[in-house]
From TrEMBL:
It catalyses: adenosine(37) in tRNA + 2 reduced [2Fe-2S]-[ferredoxin] + 2 S-adenosyl-L-methionine = 2-methyladenosine(37) in tRNA + 5'-deoxyadenosine + L-methionine + 2 oxidized [2Fe-2S]-[ferredoxin] + S-adenosyl-L-homocysteine; adenosine(2503) in 23S rRNA + 2 reduced [2Fe-2S]-[ferredoxin] + 2 S-adenosyl-L-methionine = 2-methyladenosine(2503) in 23S rRNA + 5'-deoxyadenosine + L-methionine + 2 oxidized [2Fe-2S]-[ferredoxin] + S-adenosyl-L-homocysteine. Belongs to the radical SAM superfamily. RlmN family. Residues 117-361 form the Radical SAM core domain. This is Probable dual-specificity RNA methyltransferase RlmN. It comes from Nocardioides endophyticus. PANTHER family: 23S RRNA METHYLTRANSFERASE (PTHR30544), RADICAL SAM CORE DOMAIN-CONTAINING PROTEIN (PTHR30544:SF5). Binds 1 [4Fe-4S] cluster. The cluster is coordinated with 3 cysteines and an exchangeable S-adenosyl-L-methionine.
Amino acid sequence: MSERTPLPLVFDEPRGRKKPPPHLADLTPDERVERLKELDLPGFRAKQLSTHYFARLVDDPAEMTDLPAAQRDELVAGLLPNLMTPLRTMEADRGTTRKTLWKLFDGALVESVLMRYPDRATVCVSSQAGCGMACPFCATGQGGLQRNMSTSEIVEQVVAAARSLARAEVPGGPGRVSNVVFMGMGEPLANYKAVIGTVRRLTDPTPDGLGMSARGITVSTVGLVPRMLQLAEEGIPVTLALSLHAPDDELRNELVPINTRYSVAETVDAAWNYARTTKRRVSIEYAMMRGINDQGWRADLLGDVLQERGDWGWVHVNLIPLNSVPGSRFDRSTEEAMATFQNRLIDRGISTTMRDTRGSDIDAACGQLAASEG
């Protein structure tokens, strides 16, 4: 087995880094009022600023005409500081897929993707700059972890996409964000506090938040078992997506190094616990890699692993054609291998679909655009 980057012993905020400025998306409504009072500004203006940000999706202070001109700049600086700057936006699928490379306040680079379909609009967000999980087939994992993102930095990716849809900048006319998936750069559950804060901001009713349904939000993980157990007790009915990628410890130790700490059995048990506790079906993410994890017998083993925990209805398998990273030894499975793998799971009664791959021509695999910019 090749050498791997050592995994961190803890999954908390990296120390010694300057934090982004406070933003209203980091704060509860009461905390927003207190923030303005600390700045000797009228606390009642907090709701107006929240309305501009979450309900009206305004990003130009000149449009906030209900704020007094003499205080407008101070109010905006106090609760709506600029968090990130778009460096590049690339389009695919006739403009319905838009990938944006963002520069954060400290120079870190992250990516988000807006994907518009006839019946929904999904935003894929990053939760960390880089990633410390060191999965060898992932572009982000090759660069290591720079830092956790703040709640407001994650929220801003969604709000920016919401603005683009509302302004009809995406083909299909004015629209709304219906789904958010935490499947961009980083391991969401390694930045647990900020990710949960983001989910609460997205689901808080407007103007306190974006007013989304929690059922339209998916939080992914490579298998941080303690955090998976914690998420089950949050009382927020998000979908949990477990990036499994292998049904056996021998292979998963290599593909997903955190497996050396939490085995396949422990990880799938935690996913089963989430489904049982929340009554929400769990998604099993499985990247299809040619000659690595796409053998028919591994499909059968995956079926065994999932079915032995309970009725098959608790889980859905999402097969993902690998978006290959240049220079990597990992390549996408053949169409025949993927079809065989899918059919063997379906034949066992396990709900299984093949993910629609969008944006492969714009470096849509997480981390590819940031890596090319760096």
